[in-house]
Amino acid sequence: MKKFDSSLYFITDSTNYGEEEFLFRVEQALTGGVTLLQLREKEKSTREYIDLAEKVHAISTRYNVPLIIDDRVDVALAVDAEGVHVGTSDMPVSAARKLMGDNKIVGATAKTVPWAKDAYEQGADYLGVGAIFPTTTKVKTVLTSVDTLRDICSAVPIPANAKLTRYLRIFSPTRSR
Question: What pTM value is reported for the model?
Answer without folding.
Answer: 0.89
